[in-house]
Amino acid sequence: MTAQRETRSAIWARAAKMAEQTPPSRNRYVDFLRALSILAVVVGHWLVAAPYIKDGAVVGGHLLGILPWSQWLTWLFQVMPLFFLVGGYSNGVSWAATRRDGGSYSSWYAGRLRRLIWPVMPLFLIWTLFALFGIAFGLDRDVVKLAAHLALVPVWFLAVYLMVSAVVPLSHAAWQRWGLGSIAALLMASIAVDLARLQLDVPVIAFANFGFVWLAMHQLGYAWADGRIERGGAAALAAGGLTTLLVLVRFGPYPVAMIGVPGTDLSNSMPPTLALLSLGLTQTGIALLLEPAARRWLQAQLIWTGVVLINGMIMTIYLWHLTAFVLVMVGAWLSGGLGLHAWPGSSAWWLARPVWFALYTLALLPMTARFSRYENLGRGDGDDDLPLWRLITGLVLICLGLGGTAAISIASPEGITGVRLWLVALPLVGAALVGFGPVHSLAKRAF
What we know:
The chain contains 20 helices and two strands. Helices cover 70% and strands 1% of the residues. It is globular and about 60 Å long. Strand 1 and strand 2 form a beta hairpin. A two-stranded antiparallel sheet has the order 1-2. It has helices spanning 2-20, 28-48, 63-66, 74-77, 80-100, 105-117, 120-136, 141-152, 155-166, 168-178, 180-198, 209-225, 231-251, 274-297, 301-311, 314-334, 347-371, 388-408, 421-433, 440-446, and strands at 52-54, 57-59. The longest helix has 25 residues, at 347-371. With 447 residues, the protein is mostly helical. The chain has one domain (16-446).
């Protein structure tokens, strides 16, 4: 226990030192929103996953399907739009600085790509090994597939964010030339996609909104960074976005839930819809209205140190939080279904939430302590100019691998190994091309 306390003290001391070195020009609210958005997603996932025991077997219940009224809660917990807003702010400031300093796109993007892909690799490799050895030792293939799929679902977001970040030179140039018109164009494009999908029955076009919706939120980040959204504009965004969202849900085909609900035909998030973009506009307006007060609040050294601490491990928390959930559920099942007999949504179930959340957190803490170091390994690695073909090829392979993992799982109910080895290989080969870890120097010499 003494060693653990010393470790926690050392981690806090490092965060406090970093907090003290924060330059006065830094917008601390950006870091706060980044941490808040990811933590809200974590809490939301832990809340909606509602397994229970039925006829002696564990049933993977989903709170939004069991309690329809709880779907309104997704308007609070679906805050991925805020993350893309913050990403636009940060990417815009960073890219503008790179251009002023005469830096190259290859160097700039390679550094960002490595910092984002490094934390994924341990999660990816560990679950691949679990799937391989689980099948080899006789675990039910469907159970292995379900566990691996659930734990690795969060990587979908990285695939989309990496693609949005890859086109920053183009999107930032569009912002500089057309300003708010560039956001309006993306808004109109997202409307056109939904019309084609829902009115003209062209379902495949819906995937285009992974680009239009998230690029629109990213573009709003540029507007924020450049001070183009004043208090009146923020109020208009909040009111207009909320009004549009209410109209779309009340009179349109869009469901209340801002994430997918089992058994429903239309999801607002996979792919994203105009309704989710309206929620993002609402959240942006509210966030910017709160900015002045929040920035004063974040001047407190204790609070700011906490934000710095969380941001230093935020991707690890996001990537591993469902693994922690799976481990706790396995423990409960091995204990004879301990705590899983309450019906989701009942008073007993709600009263037990603090206990379950504490267990998830306890399971997540050692993973965070062990793997958060990978978030900093890619920093400073973006100084070399990779050939553009390597950068783009690596990006495409990584995104195909991560997107495929979230969609169909690396585990397969068929085959000798029970693992889709081709899917596992995609992000690993892609990461090698862009200079991942120990293969960095070898790849530089080879190419």
